[in-house]
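Human:
Take a look at this sequence-structure pair and walk me through the tokens.
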Amino acid sequence: MKRFLLSAAVAALSLAPLACDLEKTGAQLTADHVMVGTLLATPEVEISALALAGFDAGTVVPDGGDVISLPAQTAAVVFFGTKSGENSQPSGVSGATATLQPVGGQATALTEDGSGSYSRTNVAGSDPELAYQSGATYQFIASRNGTRYVGQVDDAPIQEAITRFHPPEGFLRHASGTALTFDRAAAAGNKERTLGFVTVVPVSSDGEKGQPTYSNVPTTPVEFLQLVAVPGTYREAQVTIPGTAFPKANQTYLVIFQAVRLGGAESNNLFIGSALLAGTADVGIIRTN
């Protein structure tokens, strides 16, 4: 997109507090290293056999077969790269040491995956060193050749409960092929509303998750940089998921809603358009008819 990276930098600069360090900000505008990082947590989800099979709430289910549990998961992913011009696609930097650290806490090393990507995942407590802490300030750090590049997210948000996801029946009945709209919780105090990311995933009768049928989560470094420039669409009080996200009748879907805080470059050697995200999810269970 023409002149995009410069536009992203200017937009990010306009959001900076008036007391910011202008010298540091100026250096970040011209820095040629960029970072995209996410720390996202999803809670354990229990899906009743009623939701999987589409029975009425009064249906009797045999003992031992009434609930399928999907484990909690926390995942950290970092892309560390360089850019060589305002319109350039960032190129991944290999051979760095990438860590995630809550300020005042223990650093967690990420595994290099290649092409500038680094990650680590904790499923059902399998890797307790990687944990999500609401309220923490997280630093995403890449070190290479003795130089540290730091991005930061302040005040990792608490789970945002979506009322429509939790009807008395335990799951929401919904017509296949039709849009689903829900309202977000009000922002607490004087805080700015967090970003909201949605992913829809089908679930089979035995609890196996399929490929997402819908997601508005950025997936490429450039899409994350665009998010820095224009975050407003992710902060709207009402969210609409298109009907194409629910293509099949008599199907169970998970709607995963991530409430995410947006951070950015902390060190002056990192491009100001860098996008760092931390957040946690609420999950709705949808049964189509």
